[in-house]
Design brief:
283 residues, alpha/beta, seven-stranded mixed β-sheet, 16 strands, binds flavin-adenine dinucleotide, binds FE2/S2 (inorganic) cluster
Length: 283
């Protein structure tokens, strides 16, 4: 069992858990993920390693409640434990000194971008970060991203904080005014990564995205996470999750992400009903 050492609610539906998992903490690197199970009957699902503390033996995850498993996880408190926490999995982000790098974060993925931006900064790069949220109330970790960036641009869809625009607009402006940008790292919702990759394409700037197809085993065995990269089939769990955004077949990825929508919504509804019944039973 893996004990939750600390819980923090970053927004009403985005939570941070620090988990005691010394073996994972020992080897964790930016860009890698874990597969976890909330309890022994729970489904396996992936979450990115947002931070780690090798001395304490802890790993931090940040997750958004979207369906049954993430909502179930969100019911746990510090002191509770989860039944499986397997990792670190996947390839770590390639960290080189290239000059100026633009890091683009969308929503909960800000937590994933921070360790990548930090590693790029520590490698001697100038880091320009852009973070985008739907609204100010959903924002978190502005201070953490600021700390690891030379410049930070914030945008919200509704204009409640920073610029009222999507991340692609400041991204284009940064590329037009900074001729020394050699790499973009874009992590967030699939649509955002797709359009950000289209924005960088005409500039010919290498663009790394972190793909989130459905994963089951996370070790290259089930084929569930297969994606098309430059016309070749790759497994995101072992060949990625980071890939060249200009080579990703976004239509295939988006279609495969929707494969189990019916089952996912039934499963969430059944779980919500069982929670309501339990609460009814207690009262
Ligand atoms: C490598 C990787 C890293 C990820 N890192 C994070 C993270 O740091 N924080 C975060 O909030 N989310 C992350 N995700 C997404 C997270 O795994 C899903 O939100 C979660 O599995 C949803 O499960 P659910 O039962 O709550 O929702 P469901 O209702 O079951 O699903 C909601 C949506 O989540 C996706 N999803 C469902 N099951 C899986 C699965 N087994 N594998 C991948 N996607 C699934 C599908 O697109 C689905 O439509 C990551 C995904 C991948 C592939
Ligand atoms: S999750 Fe099974 S092959 Fe990648």
């Amino acid at each position: 069992m893996y004990k939750i050492l600390h819980r923090e609610d970053l927004t009403p539906n985005i939570h941070l858990f620090k988990i005691l998992a010394p073996a994972v903490a020992k080897k964790a690197r930016a860009g890698q993920f874990v597969i976890l199970m909330v309890d022994e009957k729970g489904e396996r699902f992936p979450l990115t390693i947002a931070d780690w503390d090798r001395e304490e033996g802890s790993v931090t995850i940040v997750f958004m409640e979207v369906g049954k498993s993430t909502r179930k996880l969100a019911t746990l408190q510090a002191g509770d434990a989860i039944s499986a926490f397997i990792g670190p999995l996947g390839m770590a982000t390639e960290i080189d000194k290239v000059g100026t790098v633009v890091c683009v974060a969308g929503g909960f993925a800000t937590a994933i971008v921070v360790p990548v931006a930090r590693a790029l900064k520590q490698a001697g790069n100038r880091v320009i970060s852009i973070m985008g949220f739907r609204s100010k109330d959903l924002m978190f970790w502005e201070d953490k991203l600021q700390e690891v960036s030379d410049e930070l641009i914030i945008c919200t869809d509704d204009g409640t904080y920073g610029r009222k625009t999507l991340v692609t607009e400041p991204l284009r402006e940064v590329l037009e005014t900074n001729k020394d940008v050699h790499l973009c790292v874009v992590i967030g919702p699939t649509n955002m990564m797709k359009f950000a990759s289209e924005t960088t394409r005409p500039f010919g700037i290498k663009t790394i995205v972190s793909l989130n197809p459905i994963m089951v085993d996370g070790t290259g065995m089930c084929g569930g996470c297969r994606v098309q990269i430059g016309g070749k089939t790759k497994f995101a769990c072992v060949d990625g999750p980071e890939f060249d955004g200009h080579l990703v077949d976004w239509d295939v990825l988006m279609a495969r992400q929707k494969s189990y929508l019916d089952e996912e919504s039934i499963s969430t509804e059944l779980w919500e009903c069982s929670c309501q019944n339990q609460m009814g039973g207690k009262s």
